[in-house]
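Input structure tokens:
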């Protein structure tokens, strides 16, 4: 396993035989799960925390299927002010309770400077969303916390802009950065976004930050999510962020792109086969401890 100290030097950028840069590794959530050592870390959960039953049931289901992290927004950056805006602090409390019960790490978004401290108190991994990729004061402030940060690619951001945004976090003193490809806006209208797996391939030659892929926002359609998740793993993703809801058709946000627990379970089985074929491992929770298992 890597420690941040081991890789926090120029040696981390040594190129590997395929011309790819060796990943920066670090531990997550103060636990044993490491990122950047070839392990795949799957994080799953609802788009938004809606209520206690929805969150705890979804958390139990994704833990059972083999996720190591629970995603769920307490603060939601919604396009329309009339859409569900999230439960705020109550949502954070529920996420903490779900972690307590399942052992899952919590990944949740800070949408502004105003809620950053509260989010950082609960989150094992702080998410900075697409709409905030170039919110430089937020990046700088988030960088002051010694917690891993998922930096999502902006809706129409170039790879260079995305990497520059990550530098704001690094400059603030935090190098535990995970870059998350979540699709970009293109001329295509039949999918919500266009998942740029080409960026994933490129970044492995460009940066030592570990890479995450969010196939859910990447296409916006439940039936396409498994294929993109499989492709992302095969393309070298270190982590996947997948929307799962106990009752996708009743979700208050992003139900059309959320997998049911059954669909997620099936996908996890497929991912295990792909990981095995690649000689990679999928991170797992064992006895409440995070570790890795084939
Ligand atoms: C989310 O993860 O629910 C989200 C709002 O994502 P993005 O910032 O990629 O739109
Ligand atoms: Mn969502």
């Amino acid at each position: 396993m890597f420690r941040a100290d081991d890789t926090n030097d120029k040696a981390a950028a040594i190129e590997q035989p395929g011309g790819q840069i060796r990943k920066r590794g670090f531990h997550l959530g103060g636990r044993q799960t490491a990122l950047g050592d070839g392990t795949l870390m799957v994080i799953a959960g609802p788009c938004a925390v809606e209520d206690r039953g929805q969150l705890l049931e979804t958390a139990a289901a994704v833990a059972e299927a083999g996720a190591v992290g629970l995603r769920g927004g307490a603060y939601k950056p919604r396009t329309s002010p009339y859409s569900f805006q999230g439960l705020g602090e109550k949502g954070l409390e529920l996420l903490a309770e779900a972690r307590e019960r399942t052992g899952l790490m919590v990944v949740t978004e800070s949408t502004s400077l105003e809620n950053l401290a509260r989010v950082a108190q609960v989150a094992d991994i702080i998410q900075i969303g697409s709409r905030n990729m170039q919110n430089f004061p937020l990046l700088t402030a988030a960088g002051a916390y010694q917690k891993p940060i998922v930096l999502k690619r902006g809706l129409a951001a170039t790879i260079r802009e995305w990497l520059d945004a990550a530098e704001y976090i690094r400059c603030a003193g935090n190098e535990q950065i995970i870059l998350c490809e979540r699709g970009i806006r293109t001329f295509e209208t039949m999918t919500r976004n266009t998942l740029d797996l080409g960026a994933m391939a490129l970044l492995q030659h460009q940066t030592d930050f570990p890479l995450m892929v969010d196939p859910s926002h990447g296409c916006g359609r439940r039936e396409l999510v498994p294929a993109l998740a499989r492709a992302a793993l095969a393309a070298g993703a270190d982590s996947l962020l997948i929307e799962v809801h106990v009752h996708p058709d009743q979700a208050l946000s992003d139900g059309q792109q959320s997998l049911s627990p059954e669909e997620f379970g099936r996908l996890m089985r497929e991912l295990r086969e792909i990981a095995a074929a690649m000689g990679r491992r999928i991170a797992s929770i064992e006895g409440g401890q995070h570790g890795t298992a084939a």
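The chain has ten helices and twelve strands. Residues 26-290 form a domain with the TIM Barrel fold (CATH 3.20.20.70).
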